[in-house]
## 1
Amino acid sequence: MPGWQLGLLSRPFVRFLGRRLAALVLLGIGITFVAFVLTELVPGDPAAANLGQRAIADPAAVQAFREHYGLDKPLPVQYAVYLEHLVTGDLGQSEQSHRPVRSDLSEFVPATAELAVTSILIAFVLGISLGILSAVRRNRLTDQVLRVISLGGISMPTFWLALVALYVFFFKLGWVPGSGRLDPGVLPAPHVTGLYTIDALLAGQFDVFVSAAQHLILPAGVLAAYNVGLLTRFTRSAVLEVINNDYVQAARAKGLPERTVVLRHVLRAALPPIITVGGLAFANVMTGTVLVESIFGWPGIGQYAFHSATTLDLPAIMGVSLFVAVVYIVVNFLVDILYGVVDPRIRVA
Amino acid sequence: MSAQPLPLRFAGVFSRRPGTLGSAWRQPLAIAGMVLAGAWIAIAILVPLIAPYNPLTQSSQLVLAPSASHLFGTDELGRDVFSRVLWASRLSLPLAFFLVAMAVLIGGVLGGLAGYFGGWVDEVVMRATDLVFAFPTIILAMAVTAALGPSLRNAVLAVLVVFWPSYARVVRGLVMSLGQSDYVSAARLLGASSRRALVVDVLPNVAGPVLVLATLDLGNAVLLLAGLSFLGLGAQPPTPEWGSMVNTGTQYFERWWMGTFPGFAILSVVLAFNFLGDSLRDALDPRSSWAVQR
């Protein structure tokens, strides 16, 4: 369809893109402001909170810290200093690992990325399928059962589901391996993307791929539960919005099989609103990883956030929050753009 | 206007078409929700009479499997898990109601002002909601609680911080669209004061969508508080709380009863509120209804 391919370079689309980009930058600045205010809220001396017990006894270290973060200056200047550090990637130092939060994060991000992407894929495939099924069989038994199941999905405490799933499928049934990303003794393939499954395929190490995939399936499935519920419900209503439109009736009248009608004509129109769930699905997965990764011994930023929270490692908590929020608004931005591409009405309005 | 799209859990709430509440209560789902929620509220009220043990009393009977004398077994300090699960309802349920009431109040007032006055008031309130929505809920709640110091009180504050904006947005949107609607203009033309227009014509129409959102948020509040306690940021030991009990359960992995039963409690409470909220939405908004014939 050359129409919208050309449309991507049109002025309304460029203007739409510009507006969204400006909103993204403003939100990004807003997020740093929130993070700054939160660090200011910390009761007591921020030097004590950041340096830990040992270093606080050393006046030279405290003085260096105060100067580094401009703590002897007025608040607006402190915020400027804070922003300056952020721009250079300085997120402070973790009290637990005694390393810069940034290096901690970059070490843990690939594991979470692999888990999150897998989980979102599972959720979209399952959720959209179940949603279509529910809409096609609306008001029949299948539909009612799926309604209860999808409500169950969004009511489930993820951390509890993880515990129960691990107990049943690992401990009792032995269907999946236990914690970690690989079986003991299996070495990851040479680092390319940091995603063990992809790296293993790239290196042609099939056994490593199998091990990584086996370790991935249970955590990814548990993390998908909430989003499956959400997407089932959303797909159902999106499909019902269009299923009785005239053009769908026309397709039926042409004698097309119902399967073709639903997959080609109905789903095509129902898909754009479903795309908008992408951002929320991402937020749900990030929420889930914080609660679940430590249960599965998954060495990602979720486990890092969990340990930071339980040990009150403030610089690490703020670093993770800031990072996740920035990724989240970028994901939302991309979802917006994608929606604008798929549905021209959005970018004109 | 650069406001972000609304989080999608409100999809449907927006297409307001006040229907009758009566039909909601004939659905099996609504009945199930009422029975479950009613049972938990009864438990929270009657717990001193029905819990077999003191939830804080430790004994030498450590990590016993479920049996007739300890229905849900005992935990690592020999406390009765069944009694602790029941007692924890006294914490989570009132807090959930309190949280949602406060969020409705704060968000409703701010959103109402934003929608009514527009201009810079609107701008300030909406940008504040944008900021909150820029974070996944538990991430922001975690950061807020950690910054204020881990305690139940601060966890409640944090949940409030992440909850109010949805009400502000819904109420603002409704007030704005209703303010321009024909029947409110008609009332104004007839000489009704703006305050009267707000109270008599606008409020009743705002109530339905807010009620749906609030019912669903009762479940979300229970989940979020349990999540924060699971992270060690909410209720502190030895207080019986479902999330922190599940956390203990993860440390005693093979003693499945320690984590499983508190989790069932969370699930059943949240499910009850979601059943109710979903049925309410059906009743108030036939267009998105799960049960309606098309």
Note: Chain B touches chain A through 59 residues (CB under 8 Å).
## 2
Amino acid sequence: MEEKTILERLRQAFPTGIRESGTSLGDEVVVIDKEILLPVAAYLKDGPGDFKILLDLTCVDFPGREPRFEMVYHFFSLSRNRRLRVKAQVSEGELRIASLTSLWRNADWLEREVYDLFGVQFEGHPDLRRLFMYDGFEGHPLRKDYPLRRRQPLIHLKE
Amino acid sequence: MTGPKVKRPPSGQFITTQFNSLLGWARKFSLFHYPFVTACCGMEYMSAACAHFDIDRFGAGWTRFSPRQSDMLLVVGTITHKEAPVLRTVYEQMTEPKWVVAFGTCAVSGGIYDNYAVVQGIDQIIPVDVYIPGCPPRPETVLDGLIKLQEKIQHQEHDWRWKKKRS
């Protein structure tokens, strides 16, 4: 019954920001408003859930849906051997969300990756630059509307 | 009584050849290679280069990690657009004569990576002499490609100062 309690505790601690919660493939999933991401993350890290590890942080593009983007965070609790997935939806018009670098240092490069490939702005990130693509690269290649055949070579290519 | 003496070249003491074919023979069995290894094909390169398949049997045993000292550039693995200027610089740093081997499907054509990041074949950046297909190629295929390159070197249309012959 432990799985229930972390979701219930979250709902108690944040009565307004939790949109939906449930389990998927054995892990708890919670969808929150993006405004409360930082307090929720701090609560998960230092609260009763004890989610000390940020496993992964990524983004999903749903073209045609509003809000278009969805940030996905995976947390892991070493002491309890539990995982938790937190989702927050971000609209294309206001493509920014709080950075988790103040809580987990490994969020630094993960957020740079998401910024590089999806163009999400992270407020409070110390050094938000591209991670994979090079300077001068236009657009964000993992967005679904990035043209499939578009190439941006750095040097002249022979045909 | 002895018959008239037949004049014959003494056997086994000299051979007749052309200077260029002698040079080609010398060059093809002393290939110093520079492995530009970027991806999983590197495992097969290691297998081909080390004792089990032993690329040294074909005279290409010396791995030089400086492009200035090497003759054969082995491009082993996926080349991204971000990496393309590096590869071209390495190629330009090599001294003549030099040969390029595209090792594996990614270097040949980009392979399965038909996307924003990957160069669709290194022949878009540098000239390639031998293409070795396979994902990754087996070491036997690598040795086959090396032998093909040696045949090519043997019949190079260059003079010994590495100037292109004018036809």
Note: The domain at 2-123 of chain A is CATH 3.30.460.80 (Beta Polymerase; domain 2).
## 3
Amino acid sequence: MARLRLPPTLPSFYADLPRRLDVDAPTVAAAFAELDARWPGLYDRLCEHGPALRTHIHVYVDGTRGGLDTPIGDASRVDVVAAISGG
Amino acid sequence: MATKMMLLVGTRKGVFLATSDEARRDWQIRGPFCDGWPIYHATYDDATGTIYAAAASEWHGTSIWRSSDLGESWTASSEGLAYEDGGRNLTKVSCITVDGDRLLAGAEPAGIFESHDGGETWSLVSRLEDLPGRAEWDEPGNQPPGHLGLPAVFAHDGEYKAIIQGVGLFGSTDGMKTWSPRNKGLRREWPGDHEEIGFCVHKVAVSPDPKRLYQQNHCGMHRSDDGGQTWTEITEGLPCDFGFAAAAHPHDRDSFYVVPLDGGHGRCMPDGKAAVWRTSDAGSSWQRLDRGLPQSDAFIGVLREGMAIDALDEPGLYFGSSTGQLFASADAGETWHEAAGYLPGISSVEVAVLA
């Protein structure tokens, strides 16, 4: 199971969504789909038409910038970051 | 039961609710709601007692929030708020309108969505594809600054009307299947390929007489006496022709309120002196209303959804500034007081009567 960390802007949007959770998925896109099944609409909060990551959502898999197609290993750490924007 | 008033204030950092008794003098502020998301419009459905707020986050996209308990709890949904595969990214919802037992939402890029389940799910009604020159004005590179797309859609005088930012006002008599322009007589200060396309309509206010409409345009104030088919400019007597917000008196077809702003980059009230302007004779003359408003160093602006009027016998008038001041008048604009001074920048103000 990969360990996934979400940005602080999301858990307040879904009352029971933790900041850190385990996912069993082969890619980032599959991990997001798994989250969406448990918290409907979450996929749209992270991805836009394409599909593609939203402009200010960055994903790092094991410390390296990745995308929706990036593979995830069993022991991976996946960081989903809301990039600095706005004020 | 005593009348309770509620202002719904959409800001850059969430929705705020201001409540008062019928005197409309002392306001209790609650918020921010919607987790601090930027709000473009918040409104209230009298029939269901539900608050709706259109939000667009730079991080997480567009969502419409709703609360059925006057702000105590909130739910958000964006299900169905998207254009078809191969279409454009929907970047924000600019307005929400209660239309009988359904909701309408105007979006950017220009499109109209509806919900029949109280905002849980949405579906596309129209992209106004039949309008002249649409391929050109709908191009992403041709979008005007502000990026509101379609900031107003409402039922009026036997048809639906919609504003497309920088393009014009349009009407549909067949349930939003086809559309045609309602821009005859409007002024513009730039060339256009089509005689009725390319007008910058900021706000349309409906008087109690459905044939009488008022409009704050990028280029002047205008009045229609035939339900929007034709327009006559009524700017003369105002300090400038630019502004965003407007409100029509709920009981007097000849009275109309605007907030003139410098039309350059500043877009603030002229000379740093805050004022709302009123006509009581359908635009033949204008009066400056500033008692209680700051008269020095008040470089504030009001956006197109930033002013509201209630329908009490003596109407209350309200406006919120893009720098976070909320002003209220309980006597139709004659005197004003500050209801809140330090909110985030205000994008919309609506008023509801809570019985």
Note: Chain A has two helices and seven strands.
## 4
Amino acid sequence: MKRSVTFWIGAIAFLVIILLTTQIIGNEYPFFAGYVILQFIVLAVAWSILGGYAGYVNFGTSAFFGVGVYTAVLLTKAAGAPLAVQIAAAAAVGALLGLGVGLLTLRMQGIFFSIATIALTIVIETSVTNWRFLGGAAGIQLQRPPVTPPFHSYVQMLFFVQALLVVLAVAIARYIQNSWIGRGLQALRDDELAAECTGVPTLRLKLLACVISGALMCAAGAPAAMYLQYADPSSAFNLNYSVSVLAMSLIGGTSHWAGPVIGAILLGVTQQLLAVTISSEVNVLVLGIMLVLFVVAAPQGLIGLFRKMVDGRAEGKA
Amino acid sequence: MDLLLDAVVIGVLLGCFYAAVSIGLSVSFGLLDVPHVAHPAFLVMASYAVFFLNDRFDIDPLVAGLLITPLLFLFGLAAYRLYYETFERRGTDAAVRGIAFFFGVAFIIEVLIILQFGVDQRSVTASYIGQAWRFGDMRIPLRLVVAFAVASALTILLALYLSKTFMGRAIRAVAQDEEAVRLMGANPVRIKQWAFGVATAVLGVAGALLIIVAPVDPTLDRAYIGRTFCVVVMAGLGSMSGTLIAAIILGVAETIVLTLFGASWAPAISFAMLLGVLAVRPQGLLGRR
């Protein structure tokens, strides 16, 4: 109970600080860069709901992200819908897509599930590429609507909206982790058959995890259309999103909701710095090497390393 | 109708080529259960090695493919050893992290190729590239015929190796029952390491075929994740004859869709078929389980 209060005070303080910075800092660049980091936090937290707690490695982050982007594009182009509607609709579509992916998990485990999620990404990407109304392979330009006060620029507003999504995603992940849902998911991760036999409703839990994870990923993708004022299939569905989010979650550690948050901040900041100073190729290289290093040497991620350190110290005392 | 006949003939040729690029995965993933998502990345890496040898020393691409085969074999041995020590031996959680590991390796290879060779498409030169055979109205590119012949030979040789030689039978024995092999006094890890080496070595010639059939670019491995896994899963994990049949089905399906609906749908065909097979018949056409 007490920890819940602390968590919510922290979350509100975070949002207030974000809101204040958008009022004080006039330069747009920090928000432009910060937005990407916040976006990756949402994606990584959402990924680990299915990938971390339940142990289903989803390579389809880019599918969900891209569907979020294109839901927003479709609504803007067809109806001129406001940002809130775009995000809500993207979340709904994401939940449906998550349900579809969840139905795949009924028959597939391990590598088969992972490969199926890549396949899904490419199939959806190709369909969007062939959808003329959405601009096809060449992409589509979007016009930002006027900004709503109290924000001075659209990017600042998107930054704040993405911060709201971060709080939402973390709150959901934290709730799942501390409730019977999280325990059930961990049980099925360790041994699906044993979990089923001891009365864990594995099927419903997996579907639930897929739906929540999918809805959050799509919601995180929706503002990206307005952020870039442009969308094209090969960058919206780029597999780089999948590998980045996978790396962030695994490097942070998936046993606690803080893991993906730490991983996303760490890698997100590094990526922003590398992209500015060196090149985006080196960026992906660093990401890949860190992913492989952590998976080989520190399988529990930074959270695991941290726990080991604390435990080691406690043993030393005793 | 003529167009469709053309598509089928080209599809069969293309299919045999797909069998050659998938057969290594059929061993490493199909028989050894290694979640080898980096297989297509290894393949593209081999293609670039062939390109380098062809471009710099003017060596025929097929000869270049044979030249790099021993190196790839050693590379495969080392890769399996690393995978085994870090994942299979520790047991718990191996599947999740093994997949992430190979996915990471694939991306590293992709970026290293970009840094070394740039993002442009690369192709090789040889006397048989650019010519075509004509049968009446039908025109078949000679490069596809070469790929077809070499690919069929490669696939049949590997199938024979697995069924006729001592080591090949040992590999299939490990795939069937590792514990029994251990009880017979053999070391399953060494057999699997050898098998993974063979599976990687085959990529030398397969990579040469890849760059003979069409120009390659560093991110080509993403398309081949769909093609190779589609073939291997449809074949039924580890079945060599199944690999050939599944690859031909994929090749024909691709060329027919290409003819009827246009090239923009091409990338999705293998992935859609893969999804379909996984959903409907996960054990494949000639499944071992």
Note: Chain A has a mean pLDDT of 85.
